[in-house]
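Notes from hallway chat w/ T.B., transcribed later so I don't forget. T.B. wanted the structure written out for a chain they're using in a teaching module, and asked if we could keep both sequence and structure tokens in one place. Agreed to drop them here.
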Amino acid sequence: MRRYVRTTAMKSILKITLLFISILISINMASAQVKTENSSILIINENKAELQDYLSQMTQVFKDNNGKPIARYNAIENIVGDDSPEMIAIISFPDSQTIKDMINGENFKRLGEMRSRVFERLNLVICSEL
């Protein structure tokens, strides 16, 4: 019985270790993809009403402006503060001017009415790597 428990515990430890290594490799690969010279990142706080239809159209706007999706995250738990997004999307662009040009462009403006229905409150933030 003790040998079975020890073998089961070792298998569990091995699985957890492999999972941890896989996560580290995934994070490292994702960060390597994001790090390009002079790149800028657009972070979007999303709400889910009509989201899929809007995103299908915005995905093309991002592609037309050399935007590359990095990740989308669902908020799980608000730990500090009273206001948090339901979702966050991160898209990489060649530079901050490209993001500004996209936001001021006709394709982005054309989706304004839908955007106001999709997002109760929309935050767009241009970020750069530290």
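Follow-up for T.B.: The CA atoms of residues 26 and 115 lie 32 Å apart. Might be a good example for the class.
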